[in-house]
Write a structure and sequence with these properties.
With about 160 residues, the protein is α+β, with helices and mostly antiparallel strands. The protein has 7 helices and 4 strands, in the order ααααβααβββα. The chain has a 4-stranded mixed sheet, covered by helices on one side. α1 packs antiparallel against α2 and α6 runs parallel beside α7. It is elongated, with a radius of gyration of 18 Å. It binds FE2/S2 (inorganic) cluster. FE2/S2 (inorganic) cluster binds next to α5.
Length: about 160
């Protein structure tokens, strides 16, 4: 828990540091590991109840490990009227997972979003920081293949 100790040292141990501490823990681990949260409650004024309240209020916090790539399919109004459901189903069908799940190989985690901020491209999904717009279900397999092939190419 050296990393968590360093985070508490830089962000402080008061209750007001809770959000920043959780953000940094997630930046380091990719999610909020229970062990790290126990360390925080044992070495600061931040309580388990406060952590739970903050972590469940902001949907960017995660309690489970995530895949290498985060796919966010948009279900905001513009995307919804332009067929977001078909896009979501196409992703689920190709990856064989449901929203909030991670593929068994740890490559993808699927999430849904209320609006990704590029409504003129609806329907949209993002993979990490890359937006894919004006999607059609038939394009999904091809897009995802780029990521699976890149992962295979890196495997020795
Ligand atoms: S509604 Fe999908 S990007 Fe805004």
């Amino acid at each position: 828990m050296k990393e968590v100790a360093a985070i508490l040292e830089s962000q402080g141990t008061g209750r007001d540091a809770c959000v920043k501490v959780l953000q940094e823990i997630q930046a380091v681990f990719g999610y909020l590991p229970a062990e790290a949260l126990r360390y925080v409650t044992g070495h600061s004024q931040i309580t388990a109840r406060q952590i739970y309240g903050v972590a469940t209020f902001y949907d960017r916090f995660r309690f489970k490990p995530v895949g290498k790539h985060i796919i966010r399919t948009c279900h905001g109004t513009a995307c919804h009227v332009n067929g977001a459901n078909h896009i979501g189903h196409a992703v689920e069908e190709v990856l064989k997972i449901k929203p909030q799940e991670t593929t068994p190989d740890g490559l993808f985690t699927l999430e849904s979003a209320a609006c990704l901020g590029c409504c003129s491209l609806a329907p949209v999904m993002m993979i990490d920081d890359t937006a894919y717009g004006r999607l059609e279900p038939r394009k999904i397999k091809q897009i995802l293949r780029k990521y699976t092939q890149a992962a295979k190419a890196k495997t020795p």
